[in-house]
Specification:
Number of helices of chain A: 12
CATH topology of the largest domain in chain C: Rossmann fold
Chains: A mainly alpha (286), B mainly alpha (334), C alpha/beta (237)
Strand order of the largest sheet of chain A: 1-2
Number of domains of chain C: 2
Helix content of chain A: over 70%
Number of domains of chain A: 1
Helix content of chain C: 40-55%
Shape of chain A: globular
Order of helices and strands of chain C: EEEHEEHEHHHEHEHEEHH
Distance between the termini of chain C: 38 Å
CATH topology of chain A: ABC transporter involved in vitamin B12 uptake, BtuC
Number of helices of chain C: 9
Radius of gyration of chain A: 19 Å
Oligomer: heterotrimer
Number of strands of chain C: 10
Order of helices and strands of chain A: HHHHEEHHHHHHHH
CATH class of the largest domain in chain C: Alpha Beta
Distance between the termini of chain A: 39 Å
Largest interface: A-B, 39 and 41 residues
Largest sheet of chain C: 6 strands, mixed
Number of strands of chain A: 2
Largest sheet of chain A: 2 strands, antiparallel
Structural class of chain A: mainly alpha
Chain lengths: 286, 334, 237
């Protein structure tokens, strides 16, 4: 494999991995606390990108404010989804599946009707810089910084703050955390908020580089799912490691074989893990 | 208490159904092409609803990739025709079979783990399938956006008829084919669902660990149940591809195929088979009606209906309504 | 004749050792009791014998056949049946079908299956409720349903997990009567129980577990007087 190819794979691998990690962490937390795959994640991702676009173009709101508003809106919506859709049906996981998935489809359909299928563009940082001979759009540096910083913040939050630790406790066991005085419902809401914010952040930073279309949210959702399965359910360390493995594998396939094959990566990875090691790399008992 | 059932008994039991079937079977003599067309689509929808209910409504293994089964055999029909030069009629037969076994790819990876994984994994398949078909280099061979073009089913037979009769022939042929497939799938799956086979599937849905401890080989049952569901859904897909080319990614689109099917299953009553069948009919009517009401937004309205039912009345309504009507009819007939 | 042999079974859950080197054997036609405080591994042992769990070490041998890695449904077909500590039935299915699911899995001839179901429901007094949804039954009838599910497959070995829990003294006596009658007809029983008064009366031999290890085994009165057993029980309260 020629050296240039390796450089591309490595650099874009790193660039992708951090933002994937920040996104996957949100998914992983909801999975740990609510024990469900957060299928509305796709809708939240799509919504925040379109909201930003609408705020910028229709309401003339400055970029930074648009970004903050979009991310906040999606974070708030996530809490609403948690309270009104996830919590009521917690005894019936299949219901939660269908209802959270439907939310994402409603978002997709609403924007398909209102905005059409033509990709919408979000403003990106202009300019291209070169890293080790590889041209990289400046927006990617923003993505890298945002991804790394949000991941870092979340990880610190989980290990150092009281709420963060209670999130881990509730993920371990709702019952036992109640015994030691934690309110799992409050923790649940915080988790949903964090997940929503992370979805918004990832979407706003990545969307300028990829197409904003109504169906854009599914791919990040599957990527998160693949990462969480690979890393092992319930393991934050697993999510971190798996994000990088995933990022590099995906970029390897993209640069060597093309985009069509790259879209199979999440599926192939999940299937392989489920067949050979269902608990993932660092997963706990099944 | 156990005298054998006579034909008269059986007719009396199923009177309602027989009347409905007779009406539908004789419809082409009276109906216009638009109605026949709509009914063909409705019948396909019924097949999808009933097949999804048979597997997912009983075992609780939510097959969110049901449209993958439908679309896979549709594309296989196209591939057999375009690349192997097999005539459409035979291609449909072959694609239905190949698609049935191909769709096992949905189920097999999740056999060793819990049902939750199956649901998510199955969600991926249609979306990735679409991703592959619409991207180079595959899009070149699979028709990309324009779709795979094949010779429509029975077109050469139709061409032998005088020009004025051709369209009517095709409409009637398609109508009866889809009608027969629908009736066949309904009867087979209904009978199985309410017999030992079906109750074993239901036991998996209610308590899989207990089911296994009760002597049910759950892996075996899941595969068999899935294959039964897949074979009818597959043939529905292959048939629809033959009737309505070109074959595009719309055949696999979760939003347009899986969601309405899921709605029919939930609103009809999961696991009842007949509830989703009724729901498929009524929801098609509702869908047409909604166009007049909210136009393009009817797809969103549809999804809101699904959401509302899942949150408020997950056991559905149409099966309960059917039971009540049934009891009324039984009282009247005596 | 030895019906079941458990050889040096160890089972771990993460860092926890639920069963440590447990061995036991049950003779044909015996009523074998298992006692021990909560968390001593009794139900885990049942799970290993019935196939719900696989041991990390050791073997399970049934009628000279190594069934350690056999799936639970195959063990049912060999003749092993079990009940659960929390009574488990299929709540949204009629009583008839709850039992028929097992019968149709074990007997390929549907007439035999139906006959067996009728018999099982008659013995357990559930024939009248055959069409009722299982979830609506009283606790005693639920136990009878679990029992019917076990009996319909013509088992050689029945494992009961705390069968007397939640029953009135009359109901317990009735159940004991059924168990003894079935034993006379050739069945073998393994019974986990906390209500020692009743267990001691009917068991031929008893094994005591504590923290996953076997502490004592032998005739009921021997085990009852065993110092370690007394310590385990008193220590817990």
């Amino acid at each position: 494999m020629e050296f240039t190819l390796i450089k591309f794979i490595f650099i874009f691998g790193v660039l992708h991995s951090f933002i994937y990690l920040s996104f996957a962490l949100g998914f992983s937390l909801v999975f740990g606390v609510a024990k469900i795959p957060y299928l509305s994640y796709a809708g939240l991702y799509t919504l925040s990108a379109y909201l930003m676009h609408l705020l910028l173009t229709k309401a003339g709101v400055p970029t930074i404010i648009s970004a903050i508003l979009s991310i906040g809106a999606v974070g708030g919506l996530s809490i609403v989804i948690g309270d009104y859709i996830v919590k009521p049906s917690m005894k019936n996981p299949l219901s939660i599946f269908i209802s959270t998935m439907t939310v994402s489809y409603i978002v997709e359909e609403v924007f398909r009707i209102k905005m059409g299928l033509t990709p919408v563009a979000l403003p990106a940082l202009r300019g291209v810089i070169t890293i080790a001979g590889v041209p990289v759009a400046q927006q990617w540096i923003a993505v890298l910084i945002i991804g790394a910083v949000s991941s870092f913040l979340v990880l610190i939050y989980l290990s150092k703050t009281a709420t963060g630790k209670s999130i881990r406790a509730v993920a371990e066991s709702w019952y036992e955390s109640m015994i030691i005085g934690i309110n799992p419902y409050k923790v649940f809401r915080v988790t949903m908020l964090i997940a929503g914010l992370l979805a918004g952040v990832a979407s706003i930073s990545l969307s300028p580089l990829k197409a904003v279309v109504p169906s854009m949210g599914w791919s990040p959702l599957f990527v998160s799912f693949a990462i969480v399965i690979l890393g092992g359910m319930g393991s934050i360390k697993g999510t971190v490691v798996a994000s990088f493995i995933y990022g590099f594998v995906e970029q390897f396939v993209t640069w060597k074989y093309g985009g069509a094959f790259a879209s199979i990566v999440p599926l192939a990875l999940i299937v392989l893990v489920l067949i050979f090691r269902p608990t993932g790399l660092f997963g706990e008992k099944e | 208490m156990f005298r054998q059932k006579t034909v008269a008994d059986k007719v009396r039991e199923n009177l309602l159904g027989i009347i409905v079937l007779l009406i539908l079977a004789l419809l082409p003599m009276r109906a216009n092409d638009f109605l026949l067309d709509t009914l063909v689509r409705t019948y396909i929808f019924v097949i999808l609803a009933v097949t999804l209910d048979f597997f997912s409504g009983t075992t609780g293994y939510l097959n969110l990739g049901h449209s993958f089964i439908f679309g896979l055999s549709a594309y296989l029909t196209g591939i057999l025709y375009v690349y192997l030069k097999i005539p459409t009629e035979i291609a449909i037969l072959g694609a239905g079979l190949l698609g049935t076994f191909g769709s096992l790819a949905l189920l097999l990876p999740s056999l060793r783990v819990r049902g939750v994984y199956f649901a998510i994994l199955s969600l991926l398949y249609p979306i990735i399938f679409i991703g592959i078909v619409t991207t180079q280099p595959f899009s070149l061979y699979l028709g990309g956006e324009g779709g795979l073009r094949i010779k429509q089913l029975f077109l050469d037979i139709a061409r032998k008829l005088p020009p004025t009769e051709r369209l009517a022939f095709l409409h009637n042929a398609y109508y009866y084919l889809s009608f027969i497939l629908m009736v066949a799938s309904f009867i087979v799956l209904y009978k199985l669902a309410y017999n030992e086979f079906g109750f074993k599937l239901r036991s998996i849905g209610q308590d899989e660990e207990l089911s296994e401890a009760a002597g049910v080989n759950t892996t075996n049952m899941k595969i068999k149940g899935f294959l039964l569901s897949a074979v009818f859904a597959s043939y529905a897909g292959a048939l629809y591809a033959g009737m309505r080319p070109p074959i595009t990614v719309d055949f696999v689109n979760t939003g347009s195929i899986l969601l309405p099917t899921l709605t029919a299953m939930i609103v009809g009553g999961a696991g009842t088979i007949i509830g989703p069948a009724i729901a498929a009919f009524l929801l098609t009517l509702l869908y047409q009606y909604l166009w007049g009401l909210v136009g393009l937004w009817r797809t969103v309205a549809y999804m809101i209906i699904l959401l509302a039912f899942v949150l408020i009345r997950p056991q559905g309504i149409f099966f309960d309504i059917y039971l009540r009507i049934r009891r009324l009819v039984d009282k009247v007939i005596g | 004749m030895i019906m079941l042999k458990v050889e040096s079974v160890t089972k771990r859950f993460g860092g926890l050792v639920a069963l440590r080197n447990v061995s036991m054997s049950v003779n044909k036609n015996e009523i074998f009791g298992i006692i021990g405080p909560n968390g001593s591994g009794k139900t885990t042992l049942f799970n290993v014998i019935s196939g719900v769990l696989r041991p990390d070490e050791g073997k399970v041998i049934f009628e000279d056949k190594d069934i350690t890695h056999m799936r639970p449904s195959d063990r049912v077909k060999l003749g092993i049946a079990r009940t659960f500590q929390t009574i488990r039935v299929f709540p949204y299915m009629p009583v008839y079908w709850n039992v028929m699911v097992t019968a149709s899995s074990v007997y390929s001839d549907s007439r035999i299956a139906k006959a067996r179901v009728s018999w099982a429901l008659t013995i357990t007094g559930l024939l009248g409720e055959a069409g009722e949804l299982a979830g609506k039954l009283t606790p005693y009838k639920l136990k009878m349903l679990e029992f019917a599910r076990c009996l319909v497959a013509n088992p050689k070995l029945i494992m009961l997990d705390e069968p007397f829990a939640g029953l009135s003294p009359e109901e317990i006596e009735r159940l004991i009567g059924i168990i003894l009658k079935l034993r006379e007809n050739g069945l073998t029983f393994i019974i986990i129980e906390h209500k020692l008064k009743y267990l001691m009366r009917i068991a031929d031999r008893i094994m005591a577990l504590s923290l996953g290890e076997k502490m004592a085994e032998g005739k009921p009165d021997e085990v009852a007087r065993h110092p370690k057993v007394i310590e385990a029980y008193i220590g817990v309260t």
